[in-house]
Design brief:
By secondary structure, this protein is mainly α. It is built from 41 helices and seven strands. The longest helix is centred in the middle third of the chain and has 24 residues.
């Protein structure tokens, strides 16, 4: 007996008495046109790969294929296209059955029988009628009657070997042998660093422009509106339905006004059409359709997950919503299956969950009306405070890049928690949060926001004016104010920090504040005061036996000496500092000091060593993506390449400097004034050597091309460095296998090692080996673990040295 599903309250049309009438009545005009091979008028955008894959799957061994995905991803539209592609391969054709109008699972068999009556004639039994047929049965919108569909198909597929079934559903049907094919939103633009024509070809943008021109024929994507269009598509998650609904509003609003209204909610995403089902006339209706199919417990969890501003872990969900970890995992899996959540793999390899922006907007509205809203927001803020404190432990080992990666995905949650704590009146907790993330805000260029958070909480009368928290906050505010050029304000904050740390007996804090005060004096041109303050800082760091911190102060003292014309101090400081930083895992500062070492090698005339160092540093920084030292790494390589004085390397140098400048303009990342002086001089010489036209074109390329492309020797943008020739050269007496003798590396991992030695990023390795990027990333991780290497740079050095040794 078919299992029944309670769908009371859905408000779905459907009369059980209509089941069994003629096929034309059951199919309806849209499905009848589909069955006759008539395609929708609008071109299907961005689904070529999906169509090709599904053609093979549907015509292959799988009897049942289910297209899954959230509402609005275009499952039905894709199914229509695939049916048109494969129809001719089925002797008895393709037969669609629209199930959205059904109200009970028990109606499924009657609906399918009515739709297929024409193919099996007078037979009264569906199983007998389809037993000897070779046809494709297409069941559209199965989610609300999934139990009835599952019961019918489990029986049909076991009796009808020539039957193939393609279904669309927001959740799997859970039938043995079911082949799932997730239909994902259209790809989004992740960076505006690309030519306008390339951005226009991204499927989400292409669909928006296509539908916009249907209502506003003069609409065109331009440099002026591309940023707004990209953000509109991001806010609607790349969902085809939402993109089309948004584009139709260009009859009333320009892109900036439409974007502003989207930030206010999803109600603008609606359009009444007579030939479109009601659930597809607005995003609210599309989301509500899926929401009403959830159990009460699933709804409870989903709405409260709206408190998260971005991705979250299963542990975070269980913590904030207060369910056991085991039950939370079950509910998250159910929501994931039903298209109400998305998932990805975090930087730590653990799964992270997220809601589409449109779904989150729906959930936030519902959360505002919940009795426990404030309790949920309180628990969320407490969770964020623990997360920030935990991430801060990476800083004690100097692992700034790890700290940045951990907080990048949670910045939205930190902002939301901070605002809630302010509204709640908990100024002390708000200050603790603002102080906990200041290094992240500094490294990512959020200087004004970070300083504002600190200043408004420090200025709150309910926060005490002493204690370690306030001392840390004064120091943080001073650093951010320095970055913003507010030197007077910065000096005042650092003086207060020094006094507070001194009174508390916190020697390390006092040393850090003195060091920042010294750097501030250097920026203001008072080199005598700068040296005095940095020497005081160095003395305190040595007193508490903090060699890594002392090493960084030595670098600052060397920079002061360089301002006075003494360059030799830099080499001595690098020789002392770099081993300490690398041993301590201080990835950010170690990378910057290695780049500085490359520049010093270049200054001494050792072009090959300088190029080797700067190439590896730039490749590593680009691959880490969020690395704060990326602009400096690119500039260092550019300065070295400019030393060749050839047209090719001159163009590459300009591109890299332009890319670094573009990143700084976007992120406001920290820039060393002394290094920028050299960069400015190099640009003047490069312009003279290349000429204005070539120079300007190179600048445009640097600001628009993807960073990995700028470092891709295959693209001819940067000459391959001489140091990699040894790693790729072979002769008759030596084979690549000799290099890997004694290791447990697989054949594929050995290929990866050679490509790492050539400076390729994970994405480039994936393209070269024709594998997925995440697979390449895993190969690199496995290689590093097997070889006991802490970084890909060490892997490259290891294989090069072994080759040369042979």
């Amino acid at each position: 007996m078919a299992r029944q599903r309670d769908i009371a309250g859905l408000g779905l049309p459907g009369d059980p008495q209509t089941v069994g009438r003629g096929s034309s009545e059951r199919i309806g005009p849209a499905a009848a046109a589909w069955a006759a091979g008539v395609h929708p008028a609008n071109q299907l955008v961005g689904r070529d790969d999906d169509r090709a894959a599904l053609r093979q799957i549907v015509q292959g061994a799988a009897q049942l294929v289910t297209l899954t995905g959230p509402g609005g991803t275009g499952k039905t539209r894709l199914a229509q296209a695939v049916v048109g592609d494969v129809r001719a391969g089925f002797r008895d054709g393709a037969w669609p059955v629209e199930l959205a109008s059904l109200s009970e699972a028990s109606q499924v068999t009657g609906a399918v029988t009515a739709a297929c009556r024409a193919v099996f004639g007078s037979s009264s039994n569906l199983h007998d009628g389809l037993r000897d047929r070779e046809l494709l049965l297409v069941l559209d919108n199965c989610e609300h009657v999934a139990d009835g569909v599952a019961d019918l198909l489990a029986s049909l597929l076991s009796h009808c070997r020539g039957l193939r079934v393609l279904t669309t559903s927001r959740q799997p049907l859970q039938i043995y042998g079911e082949r799932l094919y997730p239909v994902r939103p259209l790809p989004l633009v992740h960076s505006l660093r690309a030519p306008l024509a390339e951005i226009a070809a991204i499927p989400s943008i292409a669909l928006f422009v296509q539908r916009a021109r249907a209502v506003a024929p003069d609409f065109a994507l331009t440099d002026d509106n591309v940023g707004d269009v990209v953000e509109i598509c991001r806010l609607v998650d790349g969902l085809p339905l939402a993109i089309e609904l948004a584009a139709t509003k260009l009859r009333l609003f320009g892109p900036p006004a439409l974007l502003a209204r989207l930030h206010d909610g999803i109600d603008i995403l609606r359009l009444e059409l007579t030939d479109v089902p009601r659930r597809q006339q607005s995003m609210r209706a599309a989301i509500l359709w899926g929401y009403q199919l959830l159990t009460e417990e699933e709804r409870h969890l989903l709405i409260r997950l709206g408190v998260f501003a971005g991705e979250f872990t299963a542990a975070a969900a269980a913590d904030v919503v207060q369910v056991t970890q085991a039950r939370g995992d079950e509910l998250l899996e159910a929501l994931l299956d039903k298209g109400m959540l998305t998932s990805s793999v975090g930087a730590d390899g653990e799964p992270r969950f997220d809601q589409l922006h449109t779904t989150r907007a729906f959930c936030v509205e519902r959360l505002r009306g919940a009795d426990d809203e404030q309790e949920v927001r309180d628990r969320h803020a407490e969770y964020v405070l623990r997360l920030v404190a935990d991430a801060g432990r990476d800083l004690y080992g100097g692992r700034l890049a790890a700290y940045v990666r951990r907080l990048t995905a949670d910045l939205g949650d930190a902002r939301a928690a901070y605002q809630h704590l302010r509204v709640r009146g908990d100024a002390a907790a708000a200050l603790a949060l603002a102080t906990g993330i200041w290094r992240f805000m500094f490294s990512q260029g959020h200087w004004s926001e970070g300083l504002q958070m600190l200043e408004e909480t420090l200025g709150d009368g309910s926060v005490s004016t002493d204690g370690r928290l306030n001392a840390d906050a004064f120091h943080a505010a001073g650093v951010l104010a320095t970055a913003l050029g507010r030197y007077g304000c910065a000096e005042d904050y650092q003086r207060r920090a020094i006094a507070a740390f001194h009174d508390l007996g916190e020697v390390a804090g006092e040393a850090a504040a003195l060091n920042c005060q010294g750097n501030l004096a250097r920026l203001r041109g008072d080199l005598q005061a700068a040296r005095r303050l940095c020497e005081q800082s160095l003395s305190l760091w040595r007193a508490v036996e903090a060699p890594r911190a002392a090493a960084l102060v030595l670098i600052d003292l060397a920079m002061i000496s360089m301002r006075r014309g003494d360059v030799s101090a830099i080499d001595d400081a690098i020789s002392f500092a770099l081993p300490l930083l690398e041993e301590d895992g201080d990835d950010w500062n170690a990378l910057c000091v290695r780049a500085l070492a490359g520049l010093m090698a270049f200054r001494r005339g050792d072009q090959q060593k300088a190029e080797q160092i700067c190439w590896s540093v730039a490749s590593e920084a680009v691959e880490m993506e969020t690395h704060p030292g990326t602009p400096f790494a690119l500039e260092s390589l550019a300065l070295v390449l400019a030393g060749h004085r050839s047209p090719t390397t001159d163009l590459s140098a300009v591109r890299l400097i332009a890319a670094a400048g573009s990143i700084r303009a976007e992120t406001h990342s920290y820039a060393c004034a002394e290094i920028l002086t050299y960069v400015d001089r190099a640009l003047q010489h490069l312009r003279q050597r290349l000429g204005t036209v070539a120079f300007d074109n190179a600048c445009i390329a640097g600001k628009t091309l993807p960073l990995p492309t700028l470092l891709d020797e295959d693209a001819g943008l940067v000459e391959q460095p001489a140091w990699t020739e040894a790693a790729t050269r072979t002769d008759s007496n030596r084979t690549p296998a000799d290099v890997f003798h004694g290791t447990s590396l697989t054949a594929r991992e050995r290929e990866v090692v050679v490509l790492v030695a050539n400076g390729l990023t994970n994405r480039q390795i994936a393209n070269r080996l024709n594998i997925a990027e995440w697979t390449a990333t895993n190969h690199v991780r496995h290689v590093m673990r097997k070889l006991g290497m802490p970084s890909r740079v060490h892997v490259a050095q290891w294989v090069t040295q072994r080759y040369l040794a042979q």
